[in-house]
Design goal:
The protein is an alpha/beta fold. It has one domain: HAD superfamily/HAD-like (Rossmann fold, 3-Layer(aba) Sandwich), CATH 3.40.50.1000. The protein has five helices and five strands. A five-stranded parallel β-sheet has the order 3-2-1-4-5, with helices on one face. The protein is globular, with a radius of gyration of 15 Å. The N and C termini lie far apart (35 Å).
Length: 126
């Protein structure tokens, strides 16, 4: 099993959960995908929160880096498709919308996402 996990508004929403899942699911390959550019600070953040990972892809990654003029959502979609994970944890709706529908995605619900869901439900009167 290959997991791809975003950091900001994903791991940061529930760091203890992601520490537990990455530490206990030892046979899973874990790739962290983030738009952050400070690799050393990002590695320190992951270590301080007990997040185990096999690969860290930042926006300045030598293989999958994001040119400055590139849209972040499009970049992340391209990276996720290139690394072909079995499951993605991602908070950006614009990324989730563009992903291949055959890839399962778990979306953390912070206050912004909850408000958006509430508005959408109100508009559609479910």
């Amino acid at each position: 099993m290959h997991l791809a996990i975003d950091i900001d508004d994903t791991i940061t929403v529930a760091p203890k959960f992601f520490a537990a899942i990455t530490q206990r699911w030892t046979e899973a390959r874990v790739t962290i995908v983030t738009f952050r550019v400070d690799r050393a600070k990002t590695e320190a953040f992951l270590e301080n929160h007990g997040i185990r990972y096999d690969r860290l892809i930042t926006s300045d990654d030598p293989v999958h880096g994001c040119p400055i003029e590139r849209d972040m959502a499009e970049w992340k979609v391209e990276v996720y498709h290139a690394i072909a994970p079995d499951l993605i944890f991602e908070d950006m709706l614009e990324v989730v919308q563009k992903l291949d529908p055959s890839i399962p995605v778990l979306l953390p619900c912070d206050a912004v996402i909850r408000a958006w869901i509430g508005r959408s439900l109100s508009e559609h009167e479910l």
